[in-house]
Every structure is written in C-alpha cells, then in structure tokens.
Amino acid sequence: MKPAKRDPAALLPLKHDAFDILLVLLEGEAHGYRILKESRRRTGGTGQLQAGTLYRLLRQLLDRGLVDEIDAPPREATDERRRFYRLTPFGRAVVREEGKRLAGVLGLMRRHHLLRDEEPG
Fold first, then answer.
1. Per CATH, is 14-118 categorized as 1.10.10.10?
2. Cα–Cα distance between 121 and 108 in angstroms, integer?
C-alpha cells in the first residue's frame, strides 16, 4: 500500500521563525549555531530567533518531517556536540507553498498601495 501523500499547504501559515530556519536550510545543511547566526545576519540583527526557540522549533520541524538530522559533514566534524540539519523534500515543498502564500499577500498589499515605495503620489 502506497503511503498517503502529505499536503504541504496543511502546515501553513508557518511561524515566522520556523520559516526563517527553513530558508537558512535551503542553502544547505547547517548546525544550530550556524542557523542562528545566519538568521540574525539576514535580518540585520532585528530577528527574534533565540537559541531556546531555535532548538524547540527544530524539534517540531523534525517531528513534522520538514528537516532531518544528519551526521556532521567531514569538513565540520570537529565538535561531536553539534547537530546538523537539512531540509527534506517535503520541507522544500512547504517552503514553496509558504512562499506562494506570502507572494499573494504581497500582491494584495501592492494592489492597495500599502508598500512605502508604491504609494500613490
């Protein structure tokens, strides 16, 4: 019997921090501290992601099948305590659906001239 196909849209909308973690993992596998640093870099330090939140969300993403925990890549195998994560194909599909959802929101904002650079003059 073939397993039922999961619907990525059923997990939407994603929490902002969870989406941010998945966006970092689009670039490739990473350990938790790297995810945290990259998230802060992308937001110019304005992001709210904290270490405790990061690991709680990673556990949820693992449980939902959006990310996998993997062995450390050989180039990073210096610290046994580090856990490495990568996006699963299902996780990539969820990111894609969330991106489509957000693009729709952005389109609505543009139509109503709610973006600063598009206000009627």
1. yes
2. 19
DSSP assignment of 23-48 = HHHHT--EEHHHHHHHHHHHTTT---
Q: What is the pLDDT of residues 56-105, one digit of tens each?
A: 999 999 999 999 999 887 776 667 778 999 999 999 999 999 999 999 99
Q: Which residues fall within 8 angstroms of residue 47, CB to CB, at 6 or more apart?
A: 17, 20, 39, 40
Could you write out the DSSP letters of every residue in the chain? -PPPPP-GGGGPSPPHHHHHHHHHHHT--EEHHHHHHHHHHHTTT-----HHHHHHHHHHHHHTTSEEEEPPPGGGTT-TT--EEEE-HHHHHHHHHHHHHHHHHHHHHHHTT-SGGG---
Indicate the pTM of the whole model: 0.86
CA dihedral 23, 27, 29, 33 (to 10 degrees): -60
Question: How far from chain centre, in Å, is Cα 60?
Answer: 12
Q: Is the dihedral of CA 86, 90, 91, 97 positive or negative?
A: positive
